[in-house]
Write a structure and sequence with these properties.
579 residues, alpha+beta, Beta-lactamase, 5-stranded antiparallel sheet, 17% strand, elongated
């Protein structure tokens, strides 16, 4: 009980006011004793009282105003600069990444009187590594960080326990509301806020400079991305594949509308399995198989040394020094170059490349961007593997004609195919939204060659190895090329270990200069399934996946479906890429 009496201590403010009043009351007595005029003293006292009243009134008004209107200041806003990084959004304005308060948990054993209770309550909320650091801190008797960063919700939960010796310090944090979706394209930041991968790493300076001025807008379309990721996951499950990659670009502008690399993870789980955050679309290189015939035939046709009616012997194996090239068309006599593409003959592609010659073919591969890393902002963009001397041997040229003996990133393939399909100009890829391509682009093939290749791509989907793509996306004028590459294992190619791919373009009948979209699907080490019997080639595995993606994303991109007769799909889907 609190006792209030004459001798009870009074608050400081009350003592100060009482003293002031007492001094005023006795001023008149002092004035009479000193012979001063009482009226003069009275005037001064009135002014002093007025000043006191005005001062206390101002203090009271300020206190009320502060209590009513002042926003609370959190430890986060007090200790960290607001907007250290700009938000990332997709081309439609959907949020991809944002700054968010994050906290670190510190433990001070000197303030803890029951260590066992602290372990019992706090332990279940910590990771094994953090729990070990807690034990170390309790044993050492020194304050140290044991866990973090973590979000505000967890901080509130821990703080509500009222554990002695537990404190929190704010840290720059970054939140990714979509979790794993588009994780490789968006990227992540380090604990100190430095961008490390994806857009966060590639555009780090721009994101920092843009803080407080609005978001950084990426070319990514989340609707397109979601469809791509779902179909890749279904394909991995269907064929029990090791991994899968998908890239979707606008070949006119070079924008990357979607990019997926599966399996994936979130930045919060990097420590558990860092390999899952490898961006296979940009940072890994593969022998892509017969999708390379797009480049081979485009180079041959553009050189003027061959035509679509040029004929090649595919009935007999191609014998080279130390190597014999076979394919599934042995015994079928001669193919025109058009048939070589549609039936994906390795022998025919190799014979054509040898006829054109290395001095003409190699510069085209360079112009298509296949001998350098893909030109894109991403730091992960990997350089190709091109074994051997700068001057290609006969064997090297023959093998590279059908996608063996050279390993490139899927992004490099996407950029090169885009250049062939957009009218013949090489447009560097970008993860940033842009309405038009850069000026002064490099021309790689003539426009008429581009039209011929568009026609071949369409024919291949209607009559060749890509028919399963047309069946999955009826009415969208899809063109494409399959690829099946045997992976090198222990120094030799393994027939049963494959990389199956499909490079698609749609709509092939769009006018020159209009938007066209490239869909690249690559599946790493697919297996035979009951739903898709036969060797898991590009035509069996990747082409139908690309068709399903196109069927879903075309409405988002403003591409209208046109009713047409259904396409019958061959059971084998064999693209001829056998060794």
């Amino acid at each position: 009980m609190t006792t209030v009496g004459l001798n009870a201590p009074k608050p400081f403010a009350w003592r100060w006011i009482s003293g002031a009043v007492w001094w005023i009351e006795h001023e008149f007595e002092r004035a009479r004793a000193g012979g001063r005029p009482v009226d003069s003293v009275r005037v001064r006292m009135v002014f002093i009282l007025a000043a006191f009243i005005a001062g206390f009134a101002a203090l009271g008004i300020g206190a009320v105003r502060a209590a009513v209107s002042r926003a609370p200041v959190s430890a986060w806003s007090a200790s960290l600069p607001a907007g250290s990084r700009a938000d990332l959004v997709d081309r439609r304005g959907e949020l991809l990444a944002m700054d968010l308060a994050a906290w670190n948990l510190y433990l001070d054993p000197k303030l803890i009187w029951d260590k066992a209770e602290t372990r019992r309550v706090l332990g279940p909320m910590l990771t094994p590594a953090a729990a070990a650091r807690m034990d170390q801190a309790l044993a050492a008797g020194k304050r140290q960080k044991i866990f973090g960063p973590f979000p505000q919700a967890m901080r509130d939960q821990l703080d509500g326990m009222g554990l002695p010796g537990v404190s929190f310090e704010a840290e720059a944090g970054r939140s990714y509301p979509l979790g794993t979706e588009a994780s490789h394209l968006v990227g992540y930041v380090r604990n100190d806020g430095l961008g490390m991968a994806g857009a966060e790493g590639a555009l780090d300076s721009q994101i920092r400079a843009q803080a407080g001025r609005g978001p950084v807008v990426l070319a990514l379309d989340l609707k397109v991305q979601a469809a791509l990721e779902e179909e890749l996951k279904n394909t991995i499950a269907l064929h029990t594949a090791k991994a899968a990659v998908g890239v979707i670009t606008n070949v006119r502008t070079g924008e990357v509308l979607a990019m997926a690399s599966l399996p994936d993870t979130t930045p919060d789980h990097l420590a558990s399995d860092p390999t899952m955050f490898v961006n296979r679309a940009a940072g890994r290189v593969y022998e892509m198989g017969s999708t390379f015939k797009i480049f081979t035939l485009a180079a041959g046709l553009d050189s003027g040394r061959v035509t679509l009616d040029s004929k090649y012997d595919v009935g007999n194996p191609l014998v080279l020094p130390g190597q014999t090239i076979h394919d599934s068309h042995s015994g079928k006599g001669y193919f025109t170059l058009r048939e070589v593409f549609i039936h994906s003959s390795n022998i025919g592609a190799a014979r054509m490349a040898l006829e054109v010659g290395e001095p003409a073919m190699a510069p085209y591969f360079n112009k298509f961007g296949l001998l350098e890393k893909a030109p894109i902002e991403l730091k992960e963009s990997a350089r190709p593997l091109v074994p051997g001397p700068k001057t290609w041997t006969t064997n090297a040229l023959a093998n590279r004609a059908f996608g063996h003996g050279i390993a490139v990133s899927p992004l490099a393939v996407a950029a090169g195919v885009g250049a062939i399909m957009n009218g013949g100009e090489y447009v560097p890829l970008t993860i940033l939204k842009r309405d038009n391509p850069p000026k002064d682009l490099r021309r790689v093939i003539r426009p008429e060659t581009s039209l011929k290749m568009l026609g071949l791509m369409r024919e291949n989907v209607l009559e060749g190895t890509g028919r399963s793509a047309e069946a999955a996306a009826p009415g969208f004028s899809v063109g494409g090329k399959t690829g099946t590459a045997e992976k090198p294992v222990n120094g030799s190619y393994a027939r049963s270990t494959l990389v199956s791919s499909f490079a698609a373009i749609f709509p092939t009948d769009a006018p020159v200069g209009a938007d066209k979209y490239m869909v690249l699907i690559m599946v790493d080490e697919p297996n035979v399934s009951a739903q898709a019997p036969g060797r898991p080639t590009g035509g069996i595995v990747a082409a139908p996946a690309a068709g399903r993606v196109i069927n879903r994303i075309a409405p988002f991109l403003g591409v209208e479906r046109r009713i047409q007769a259904p396409v019958t799909v061959a059971a084998s889907g064999d693209d001829g890429n056998e060794r």
